[in-house]
Amino acid sequence: MKKFKLSLGWQIFIGLILGIVLGIIFYKNATAITAMQSIGTMFIRLIQMIVIPIVISCLTVGIASIGDIHKLGRIGGKTILYFELMTTIAIVLGLVVGNIFHPGDFINVHSLHGSDITQYLATAKSANHSGIWGTLINLIPVNVFSSISTGDMMPIIVFSVFFGLGTSAVGDKGKIIVDFMESVSQVMFKITGWIMKLSPIGVCALIGVTLAELGLSALAPLSYFVLLTYATMAIFVIVVMGIAARIFGFRIFDLLRVVKEEAILAFSTASSEAALPRNIDKMTKFGVSPSIVSFVIPTGYTFNLDGSAIYQSLAALFLAQAYGIHLSIGQQITLLITLMITSKGMAGVPGASFVVLLATLSTVNIPLSGMTFIAGIDRFIDMARTAVNVIGNSLATVIIGKSENEFDSNKEKEYMAKLK
C-alpha cells in the first residue's frame, strides 16, 4: 500500500490556515506574539543565511560557463529590457485601475488612525537626493565583503559577474574555482531542502504574528483598496504575464503549477528571499539553462518587482483621491517616470515598496501623512506583491532562456509529467 504524504505546497497552505487561526485566537496577546515573532524571525534568518552563498556560487558558475562577454552583454541587455517593459506595464495597469475604480473616493482620511512611518522617512529622503548617478555608483562594491555582510544584493551580483568572467578568462586555471563553486551551490541546495521542511512552521508563525498584532479589523476601513490591489495583481499575472508566456510558446498556468509552492511561501512570509533558493533550483530542473537562471533570478530579485510596481502606482492614486487631489495626465506621467527610476534606486532596501512610495508622493504634491493610513495594511498587501514578484521572475527566466535557445523542452515535459 502506497504511503500517503502531503506535498510541501499543501503543508505550507495548512501552516498558512493554522497561522490565521492562531492570529485570531491570540490577538494582542503579548506572549504569543513574541513567541510567533521569534519563530518566524528564526525561519527567515535561516533562509537569509543561504541566499548569498547560493547567488555567488550559482552566478559565478553560470557566468563562467557563458564565457563570451558579448553573449553575456546580449543576455543582460535582453533581461534589463524585459524587466523595464514589464515593470512599466505594471505601473500603467495600476494607474488605469485607479482611474477607473477610484478606491480613494470611498475613504475619509480624517476617520482613519495613522501608523508610525518614521523608520522609512530618512531612507525615502536620501532616495530623492541620490539620483540616477548615485544609483549607478552604488552598484559597484567598494568592498564586496561589506556588501555580503549587509546583504546588499546588486553589488554582490556585479562582483559575481566580474568574478565569473575572470574565472572563464584564465582558462584551465579557473576550473578549480568552477568546481569549488559548483560544490558550494550543491551543498547550499541540500541545506535549502532541510530548511524548507520547516517552512510550514515558519509560515504559520509569520502569518500568526501579523494577524495577532494588527487583527482583521485593520483591514476593514481599507478593505476595498486591498481587494482592488489583489484583483489588479491577479489580472496582471493571468492576462499580462499570460500573453507574454503565450508569445514564447507556453502557458502561464503551467508555470503557476511549477512555482506554486514558491508563490505560497513568498505570499505567506512576504519575503522574496524565502523563495529565491528553491526558485533557482526549480527553474533549472524545469529546463532553463543554469547560466540563464543564475543571472536572471538574482537580478530580477532587485529589478523585476511587478507586484511592487502595481501597488506603488495604485496606492499613489488612492491617496490622491482620498485627499481630493486631482492628478492630471501630465502629473500621472510624471508619477510613472518617477516610479520607474526610484524603484530601481531602492532595490534591496528593507520595506522597499513603502520607501519608494514615500520618495515619489512629493513629486506630485500628495501629502506624506497619507502613508500613515496605509502603513497598517501594508503587510497584507506585501504578501500579494511578493508572490507576484516571484512569479514574474520565474516567467522572466523561462522567457530569456527560450529567447537564447537555452531551454530544454524535454526537461519541461518530464517535469510537468511529474506534477500530474
| Multimeric state | single chain
The DSSP helix count reads: 19
Number of strands: 0
Calculate the terminal CA-CA distance, rounded to whole Å.
Answer: 20 Å
Question: Can you tell me the CATH class?
Answer: Mainly Alpha
What class would the helix/strand composition place it in?
A: mainly alpha
Question: Low-confidence segments, ≥5 residues, pLDDT <50?
Answer: 119-124
CATH-assigned fold name: Proton glutamate symport protein
Proportion of helical residues: over 70%
Note the main sheet.
Answer: none
The shape is globular
Give the helix/strand layout.
Elements: H1 8-25, H2 30-66, H3 69-101, H4 118-138, H5 144-150, H6 153-169, H7 175-196, H8 199-214, H9 223-247, H10 252-258, H11 260-269, H12 272-286, H13 290-303, H14 306-322, H15 329-345, H16 352-361, H17 371-374, H18 378-403, H19 409-419
Brief sketch in words of this structure:
The chain has 19 helices and no strands. By secondary structure, the protein is mainly alpha-helical.
Describe this structure in words.
- The protein is globular and about 70 Å long.
- With 420 residues, the protein is an all-alpha fold.
- It has a single domain (8-419), classed as Sodium:dicarboxylate symporter (Proton glutamate symport protein, Orthogonal Bundle), CATH 1.10.3860.
- The chain has helices at 8-25, 30-66, 69-101, 118-138, 144-150, 153-169, 175-196, 199-214, 223-247, 252-258, 260-269, 272-286, 290-303, 306-322, 329-345, 352-361, 371-374, 378-403, 409-419.
- Helix content is 78%, strand content 0%.
- The longest helix has 37 residues, at 30-66.
- The chain is built from 19 helices and no strands.
- Helix 3 packs parallel to helix 14 (306-322), helix 3 (69-101) crosses helix 15 and helix 12 (272-286) runs antiparallel to helix 13.
- Its main location: membrane.
- It is found in: Cell membrane.
- It is a multi-pass membrane protein.
